[in-house]
Fold this protein.
Amino acid sequence: MTSVVGAGDGTLSNGIYKSLAPGAKVVLLKVTDEQGAITGENITKAIEWAIRNQKKYNIRVLNLSVTDDWSTSYRENAVDLAIEKAVKAGIVVVVAAGNDENAYLKAPANSPHAISVGGLDDQNTLHALAYNLYHSTFGNTIDGIHKPDVLAPAIWIPAPILPATNAQKDASVLFDLVQTQEDRYLQAKFANVLAQLGLDKKLTNEPADVIRQALEEEIGNRKLISAHYQHADGTSFAAPIVSSLVVQLLEANPTLTPAGVRNILTQTARKLPNVSAERQGFGVVHPLSAVYEAEIVHSDLPVHFTPIINYRLQTIEFSLHQHAAETVTTTGDFTNWNQEGISLQPLSNGIWKTCYKFLPKGEYRYKFIINETEWIPDPTNLLRELDGFGGFNSKLIIE
């Protein structure tokens, strides 16, 4: 967890390894019990503490790189219910999806109110064609909601080693040894630290080139990058990358709500080619596009999650933020998926809206159609499922 919150400004790497939001202030909440185990009860308490202290510490983003023990409905799980309260209070909640592609989605990754982050393996390269999936958790929750929402790098992540720990001391020794040029000095220094490093004693009798090879292998085995950084992996590290991106969005546009943040992240994400929506959600977050979108529109991004179901007036309000559209309609199983659908009317600043008649109690699916050709799910609807055609349907539940 130190690595998750300690990305910082990259001082120990001369600025090479730093987070997307190095100037952000961080509040660290411990959720382990006296035995060091992470419990749902303590995760819930931490979320509730963040809500109570939101104004005091200006808490806008909550990162949860933890998991509860059980796979239960978000409607009854204490962690999920606390997340819903946090989002209603204006806090963007970002969570790790998990690292087992065969596992069930558990809280907080199952929460529809949280932005669940799956893993990308970028192969430690900038070449997008080499990108692949990390073995992160995905699929339908008990409530039939599909996760993850987006992907972010989950392997080859430079993470700081906690200073003054044995791990950091060993890293310093290893890099000092491999940088020793003269063979006799290397052999002498190696003999003095052999016990500390836990390496094979027989190496002391080997020539310097064999010792160097063994040291390089040990550095690789420990995933070390330098005396102060090592590679880390897991969606526990992917989630904070998205959290730091959210901080950038909020700096670019402080008026953004959790709905507005979700809208930007999902609409600017880039899909991996030849990878199913089942595994990647809306795709890999794209910081440049996301921040640009937050900067150019400061007042017209969604304030609420959609659709808005008004039980008192017996209406359903559909809305979409879409600058480039000439026409927007919505269609679903309540219109027999008729392509003509229900027309949305343009308002100001790229907002399209319509009020539809109330529907009988039940569960419905729908999509938006942009310019009569592009079918998309509702980007600010928390509920979605696979549509069987490589994408998603949004879900509408009338209770």
User: Anything to note?
Assistant: The longest helix spans residues 235-252. The longest strand covers residues 362-370.
